[in-house]
Amino acid sequence: MDNISQSPHRRWNPLRQSWVLVSPHRTQRPWQGEVGQKAAPQVVAYDPACYLCPGNQRAGGAANPAYEGVFSFVNDYAALLPDSPPPHDTGGSPLLQAKPARGICKVLCYHPDHSLTLARMTQAELRPVVDAWTAHYEELGGLDWIEYVQIFENRGAMMGASNPHPHGQIWSTDFVPDEPAAETKAQSEHLALTGCCLLCEYLAAERAAGARLIFENEHFAALVPFWAVWPFEVLLVSRRHLGALPELTGDERDALADALRRMAVRFDNLFETSFPYTMGFHQSPSDQATHPEWHFHAHFYPPLLRSATVRKFMVGFEMLGMPQRDITAEGAAERLRAASEVHFWPRI
Ligand SMILES: [Zn+2]
Ligand SMILES: [Zn+2]
Ligand SMILES: [Zn+2]
């Protein structure tokens, strides 16, 4: 084919305004179809040792209620606190800067059943999770001192998740963190320069090209971004221009639940394992400004490369130079398109 599928090149990420090095010639050997042994998901619906299961005691001493739907609480070991004193004097040099950092960190259990994951929950079970994310975004973002609400999930021990119980986190901060700040800058500049939304324009280009699209439903599109760094990185984009969860209609909330589930099933089926990832939403900051430039989306950053056990590492040139990948975004999209939407390990 063309050079982009065969020769080393750099690709521009307009959302972060950074480059990624692509080295497709390193993987021209045919795919071996290597998969690990089928890894059974958790089988117990209730684990007496799990600090997230209904009725159990948490490390901080509090007991969970016998919850039946979603359940949230303030993280017992929160990374940010609502009342932290300003940092001490750092020594007078302008190069030694520190600023106060306040926030609220919450944990959201998606379901009382310990054995479930996003991939093995139904759309009807996921809709209340979407509703809870929306309510938390509104509540936390509505506080006058909170500027950003970051909703995310770490899935799997490989991503440092300490507990397999289906849950995610919601960290809200009195500043806009670096990643959404970079995307705010990029989207603002694109809007000012062209009069168009960056991601509306990008989605139109991807739908026209087709090579990196995985699937669409009525309101969302899942694709491997042109500039993907992680082997099977995915961007889930709303097809309508909107900035944040509260702007979703009821139908769009259902469509988001559907798209998240279908994407997670495809991931699990790829290597017949409970696929690890960090997933999270990027949306309008909750500062006092209006954000016409912001286009709601989710990122999936999964570490796996070739099998249930072979992962990508960000080391060497990637730590010192820039991110690099071997399989192309087009190749990854092709494999995710081919993956089934029927989970390899069905629920009984
Ligand atoms: Zn549990
Ligand atoms: Zn847009
Ligand atoms: Zn983003």
Shape: globular
Q: Which structural class do the helices and strands define?
A: alpha+beta
| End-to-end distance | 45 Å
Q: What's the number of helices?
A: 6
Mean pLDDT: 93
Helix content: 10-25%
> How much of the sequence is in beta strands?
15-25%
How would you portray this structure in words?
The relative contact order is 0.17. The termini are far apart. A hairpin with a 4-residue loop joins β1 and β2 (18-22). 24% of the residues lie in helices and 18% in strands. The chain is an alpha+beta fold and 348 residues long. The strands form two sheets. It has a nine-stranded antiparallel sheet, sandwiched between helices. The chain has a three-stranded mixed sheet with strand order 1-2-12, with no helix packed on it. The model has no long low-confidence stretch (mean pLDDT 93). One zinc ion binds next to loops.
What brief labels describe this structure?
single chain; alpha+beta; 9-stranded antiparallel beta sheet; 12 strands
Please give the structural blueprint.
Blueprint: E1 9-13, E2 18-22, E3 71-74, E4 103-109, H1 123-141, E5 148-155, E6 167-173, H2 178-194, H3 198-209, E7 213-216, E8 220-223, E9 234-238, H4 250-271, E10 277-282, E11 297-301, H5 317-320, E12 324-325, H6 329-338
Parallel strand pairs: 2-12
Antiparallel strand pairs: 1-2, 3-4, 4-6, 5-6, 5-10, 7-8, 8-9, 9-11, 10-11
The structure holds zinc ion (3 copies).
